[in-house]
Records
---
Amino acid sequence: MEAQNTQLLVLDSSIRNWVLLPIVLFMFLFGILRHYATIALRTTRKNDKAKLEQAQTLARAQTVRTNANWIPHEAFLERKAFFNQPETGVLNKKIPANTLASMADPNNMVDMMKTNFATIVPNIVMWGWVSYFFSGFVIAKFPFPLTGRFRGMVQRGIELNSLDVSYVTSASMYFLILFGLRGLFSLVLGEANAADDAQLMQQQMMGPAAAMAGPGVDMGKLFEAERDNLELVTHESKLKEAETTLLNSSQ
C-alpha cells in the first residue's frame, strides 16, 4: 500500500552539479585541512622506554596465549615458563602504579583538548555549512527499494510521507559522504591519516601496545590478569595431523 502512495521525482542534473559535487569537494578539502591541522597541533613527546617495554611484553604474552595451539607443546611450556615462572617470570615483576602522576600532568589534558578540537569542531563546521546552504534538497536516489523504517535516516530535513524512501536528501547524504570518503583519504593521505573520524577511533583502540603505553594505565594489574589467563590455557596442538591433512589435500 505504501508503494502506491509514493511520489516519483525527476532529479535535475543541476542538483548534481551545484549541490552534490560541491558538498563532496568541500568535505574532501576540509578533511585534508583537518589532517594537516591535526599534525600541527600534535605534541611530540619522548617515549617512556619502561612503558614501551611493558606494553610489548604484554603484547607478546597475549600473542602466545592466542596462538598457543599452533606451536608444539614443549615450545608452549617454555614460553609459558618465561612469562609465568613464580620468581623469574616477566609477568611477575612488581610494577608500581603511577596513575596520580599521570593525572597531575597538564600535558595530558592539553592533548585531550587538542584531539577533541580537531575532531568535533570540523564536523560542526561542515554540518552547519551543509545545513545552511543545501537544506531541503533531494539530491540522489538509491537504485534499490527501502522500507519506511529508513525514512528518518535517508530523508533528514524533509517531512514528506508521499516521497519514495529511496530518495536521499542533502542532510542524509552528508553522513554517507563522510564515511564514503575514507577510501579516498587513505589513498591521498595514507592509511594513518587524521581526516577520518573512524580512523582516529580505530587508532585509539588499535591494540594493547598502543592503548596500554598511555598514561594512567596500571600495568601491574594488566600483567596479573594476563598471567592468570595464560595459566588457564589448555594446549591442544593443531599440528598433529598436519602431514596427513597436507597429503590428503594434494591428492
---
Amino acid sequence: MAIQVLSFFTGAGLLDLGMHEAGFDVVWRNEYHLPFVQGFKYGFAKMHDASIDDFPVCTSSIENLTPYSIRNEAFSGKVWPSFFGVIGGPPCPDFSVAGSNKGSSGDNGKLTGLYFDQIIGLQPTFFVFENVKGILSNLKHRKYLTEQLYKISKDYAFDIKVMNSLDVGVAQDRERVIVVGFHKSYLHDVLGITELKELGLRNRLLLSKQLHPNIYKQHNWFNWPSIYKFENAKTNFEWPTTNAFGVKDIVCPDNLPPELCVGNYLKGLENIENQNEFFTPKSSKFLSVEEGDVSRKSFKRLHRWRYSPTAAYGNNEVHLHPMLPRRLSVREAMRIQTIPDNYSLPREMTLSNKFKTIGNGVPVKLANHIAQEIYRFFDCPSPKLGS
C-alpha cells in the first residue's frame, strides 16, 4: 500500500503531482483560495479522466484546523496509519526579495509557523517544507525559520538545502529552500541510537548557528537529488546572452543540455488546452525588448536557447515569448513548470489566477525527484553521517 500524504497549501497541486508520480498517495488536501481549488480539481480530473468530485479539498483556513478534524477528514475517523507524511509550501511573498519582506509579521509569513504547529499536532512520519530562498538568506527570516525548526526538533531530525530546479533538469532558474524531516521514533527503529544521536547533534549545531549557510551546507545527511549532467548548470555552460528580437534562425550553441533550453518546451503546443490563453499585448515593449533580456523587473523576454528566470507571474512580472510579440501563454508557463500536458486549467478561471497558481507551485519534476529520495529513504534508509 502506498504511503499516505496530507497536503497543505495545495494550490494547483504541483507538489502533490510530484509525490504521486513517486508512488505516494495524497489522501487529503487543504487550500483556502477558492480559484486555486477550482483549478486543482479541474486539472486532476482531466488527468485522471474523472469527476472533480473525486478530488475533495478542505477549504478551511489552516488557522481553524485541528489534528482531530484533519484526522476525521483524511482517515475517516480511524486510527492513524503507521506511516504518513505532511507536505506544504506556505505562501512566500513575506519572505521574498520581490515581496513585502514582512516576514513572520505578515499575513502570509505567519502561515509558516502554523504549518509547523500542524506538524507538531499531527506527528507525521515525515514532512516536506518548501519556501523561497529569502527565508534563509535574510537574517530576520532565517531567525524565524530557526525558531520553527527548534519547535519540532524534540520529535524530528531534519535536513535543509537550497535547491535550484536547474540542477535536476528543469529549464528554470528557481532556487527554493527545502526542509525534509523524519520522526525520531521511526529513525530510532531503522538507524539505532548512535546514528540518531549524531543526527540530533547536527540539528542542534544548525539551530545554534541559526541555520547559517556556511554551516548547514556542511551537515547535509539526506540524499538530496542531484543529476551530474545538470549540476551547477548556470556556471558550467556558456549560455547565450541577448539577440535582437525577431531573428528567425538562431542556432543553439553546442554542448548545451536541451532539457534546460526553453525553446524546446515551446514546440508542438498547437492542439493542447490552454495554449491560446494569454494577455493581449498592448505595450510597445513587446516589440522592443531583445530576446534574452531579463534585466528588468518586468517585461523579461526569454531566450529560446537558455533557461527561464523563476516562473513568478504575479506582482506585475511579465515574461515574454522568445520569438513572438506577446506574453507566455498559460500552457507555455505550465511547460516551464514541467506540468504534464494532460493537466489543464478551466476556461472560466481568470488568466490572473491561472498564472498565479502556476507560478506559486513547485516544478513537478523537482518535487518528484525529492519525493523519490524520500521513498528510497523508507525503502533503505542510509543517511550520510560521514564528514
---
Amino acid sequence: MQLEYREQKTDGRFVMYCHSEKLKGNGIRDSIHTYNTFVRNKGKAQTVWLDETPYHFPAQTVLPLMGNQHFRFEHPESLVGWAFNRDFYCILDHDQEVGCVGFLFYGVRSPLFISLTAKEEENFNTLENILIDEFEESDNFKGEMLRSLLKRLIIKTTRLGKTQTDTYHHFPDHKLDLIRRFALSVEIHFRQQHEVKFYAEALHKSPKTLSNLFALYKQPTPSEIIHNRIILEAKRLFLYTDKSAKEAAFELGFANPEHFSRFFKSKTGFSITDYKKQGPKKPAIL
C-alpha cells in the first residue's frame, strides 16, 4: 500500500509506504525533491545497507533517514515508511518546535536506531492507523492534519531517541544544543569549509572549546566529523554518479584534485580509481 498527499501550490509531498512498496534507491527522491524518512521495522531483525555499508536493523525499531542517503533493506515487506519533502515540512524552519535537526537528521551519530517498548509499539500502531485514515480524507483540512501528525511522529521519535542516548541523560541541554548546531553547520557548509576554525567562529566559540566539548561527550573530534562528511559525500559521488575525480574534488571544495585524491586515500585506504570499481549495488527497495 502506498498513500500520498501532494499540495498543488507548493509541491509539498508526504508519502506513507506499507509492506512491499518500492522506494527509489537514492533516498526517495525524484528529479526535483529529496525526502527525509522514518522507517519502522515491524518484523524480525534484518540488515539495512546505508550508502552500501551494512547495519543491523533490530526488530521493533525506528530508523530516521536523510534524503541524501542511499538505502536498501533485506526484508522490505516488514517495514512501514513515512517520507516527506521540505516543501511539506521543513525541519530546519521548525527546529525549535521539534528539536530533531542535528540529532535525528544531520546528526553526529548516524545511523540512529530507536527501540520501541511494547507500549510504544501500541502508540506507533495507533498513529499509523490515524495517518492512514487521514490520507483517505479529501477535505481542505487534510494537509494541515497530516502536517500535525507528522510533527507528532517527529517529536515522539526525538523524545525516544534522546532517552536512549547516554549523552542526553548526563549533560546540560545548552551544551548538547551546541553539538547539534555544529552538526547542522557542517551539513550546510562542508563542501566549502574544511577547517574547524570556520565552524567555531560561526558558533562564537574557540576551536579548543569545541574540541574539549566533543571529547567530553566521547564524540569524534570536530575535524574528524568534517572529514568524515566530506568522504561520505565523495563516496556517494563515486558510487552513484559519473563524476570524475577532478569534478568531485571541485564540488567538494578542493582547488587541487591531487590533494583531494591523497586525502581520499588517506581516509579510506582506497585510491579513487579502485573505489569506483566497486560500483553501486542493486537499487534500494522498501
---
Amino acid sequence: MTSEAGQLTLDEAYSIASRVRGIQGKKRVGRKVGFTNRAIWPVYGVDQPIWGEVYSEGLFSTDQPVNLARYSEPRIEPEIVLGLKHAPIAEMDNAQLAGCVEWVAPGFEIVQSIYPGWKFSVEDSIVAQGLHGCLVLGDKIAATHDVLTGLAEVPLALFKGAEAIESGKGENALGGPIEVLAHLVSLLSDTDQLQGGELVTTGTLTDAWPVSPGEQWSAGFGGVMDTELSVRFT
C-alpha cells in the first residue's frame, strides 16, 4: 500500500490524486463520494468519507452493458445521484444546498480496487481515484420539494438476477443525499469546488458486492423515487 507507517496524509493523498487526474486529462462530469455508509466502515478499515471524480467516458446508461475486463476486482454499489443546476458553496445550509439540485436519479457505481483483496487505508483509496470505476445512471427525476425532502426515506432493494441480495435506505448515506452533498462541499478545496451541471453520486446504500461477467443486477428504489435500475455485465 502507499500509506504504510503513516507515510501519507489526507492532503498529500488528495494532492497525488489531483496530479494524476491532470496527467490523464479526462473530461469531468461530476464527483463520487465514497464511504458515506458508516455501517461498512469496519469492513474496509476506514473511518471517514472520501471523494473522487466521475468522467464522461465512464458514464453509462441502463441500455449499455458494462465490460468488467477494464476494472480490478469490481463491485457494485446502488446509490442516489444528484444533478446540480447551481454551484453550491460552503456557507449554504441544507435547504439552500437542496435548492442547487435540478434532478435526482438512481445509479450503480462500479467501484474497483487496485489493492488485492480490497485491503487499503483511506489515503490509499483517495490515491486510487476514490476507487471509482464507472457510473450507470438511470432515469432522471425532477428535484421537486417533495422529492428532495423524501430522499432520506427512499427504500432500496438490490437483486442479482432474481436473487434478493440486500436492502437499504437513503439515510444510510450520512443521513441522506443532501447531507452527503453538504459534506462534500465542506471537503473540497477552493480549486476543486463543484459547478452547476455536475452530478454527485452520494454513496452506497448497501455493502459493495462483487460482480462478474454474465450477471445482471437490478435495484428497486421506492418512496419519492419509485423507479428501477438494471445493468448487465460482460
